[in-house]
Task: inverse folding
């Protein structure tokens, strides 16, 4: 009785299609990363435990030097109402929302000034914060 060992082949993994998939994923993530919100001014925001999401119709940013931005456009405090009016009129929502993106070192008086202007324009305000 003659016992033969069966010929064992090597296990191979064909990775030809993996290169295409990796290339497609790389392109996808590069495109998605460029679609990130470009209207963000880098600020150190206050912390909060709760988080309320609101549709960002208009973003007003106040940096540590008390410079005001409507979107990416730098405006002075005196020009803030005139800069916000067209952005609010452009929105066709029932109650437009102004998101206030203020640095944590900005005095509350400056934030309240933006809130007053928003109230005069008939918009509601949301203060943007970092989650705790």
Result:
């Amino acid at each position: 009785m003659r016992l033969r060992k069966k010929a064992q082949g090597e296990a191979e993994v064909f990775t030809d299609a993996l290169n295409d998939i990796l290339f497609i994923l790389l392109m996808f993530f590069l495109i998605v990363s460029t679609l990130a919100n470009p209207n963000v001014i880098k600020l150190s925001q206050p912390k909060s435990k709760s988080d309320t999401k609101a549709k960002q119709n208009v973003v007003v940013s106040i940096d540590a030097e008390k410079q005001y931005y409507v979107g990416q456009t730098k405006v002075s405090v005196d020009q803030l109402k005139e800069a916000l009016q067209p952005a609010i009129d452009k929105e066709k929502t029932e109650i437009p929302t102004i998101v206030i993106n203020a640095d944590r070192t900005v005095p509350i008086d400056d934030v309240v000034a933006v809130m007053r202007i928003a109230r005069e324009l008939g918009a509601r305000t949301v203060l943007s914060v970092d989650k705790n």
About this structure: The longest helix spans residues 16-34. Residues 47-131 form a domain with the Nucleotidyltransferase; domain 5 fold (CATH 3.30.420.270). Residues 24 and 112 are 47 Å apart (CA to CA). The helical segments are 16-34, 80-90, 108-120.
